[in-house]
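On clarity, I found the account of how folds are encoded harder to follow than it need be. For illustration, here is how one protein appears when written out as sequence plus structure tokens.
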Amino acid sequence: MAPVARLRSLLFAPAVRPDFLRRLPERGADGVVIDCEDATPPNAKAEARENARALAPELAAAGASVFVRVNAVASEWFEADVREALCPELAGIIVPKLDRTEQLREATALLAAHRLELPILAGLETALGVADARELLAHPSVFAAYFGAEDFIADMGGVRTESSQEVLYARSRVALAGRLAGVLTLDQVVTDFRNDALFRREVEEARAIGYRGKLCIHPTQVVLANEGFVPSAEEVDFARRLLAAYDAASARGLAAIDFEGQMVDEPLAARARQTLAAAEETHE
């Protein structure tokens, strides 16, 4: 199965909650995740695998792009997860806490041994994983990645704050690595799932940095992510007017113009073209 082209929202649900899992296709997310890792306690890993293997084809048949998040490669559960929790109907496998390319080679080798051709969505959520993000995301098996702030700060021994200033560098580094590798990047979770204002603010920040989507842990976050990672009507209108003025000036031999009080040259025109392209992609 080809990797999904757009992941504005990636909605997670615990693999041990089949009632939640069966409702995932109706939530409107671009991708849904059966989570065998953090949302599954150690004594329920076998149950999680069984649910993932049984329900993933059902969710995919209902139209969802389904992923399974397995446990970390270094964990005691990884091999059994690949062997027992995955199926060909998946859109991909999410491998968390990646911090060495050897882990990606091990993951791809194990997938191949089980005749599973699944692209990897890489979780970068450790100090080493963020530091080596460019090398990790350049691996040919990786089609997308997410930044995990909670695990990253735990690994750093830092303090998580609502401002997220403590992870700005790490967020930016992962987004930059994704841009250089040509892979989609998804922003951190907002654990306060009742705080819509915080979620909207983080979506704005993430989009400004270059992220293409956001991890969601509650269905109400899906709508906010889907809306936030596409250009607004005002942005589209501004981009069209700017390009019309810039193209007219270019035809007269001008490389820079004064447009509504700001200097516009080719970099700003390129950004306007990106805005219109993103808007067209949304309506395809």
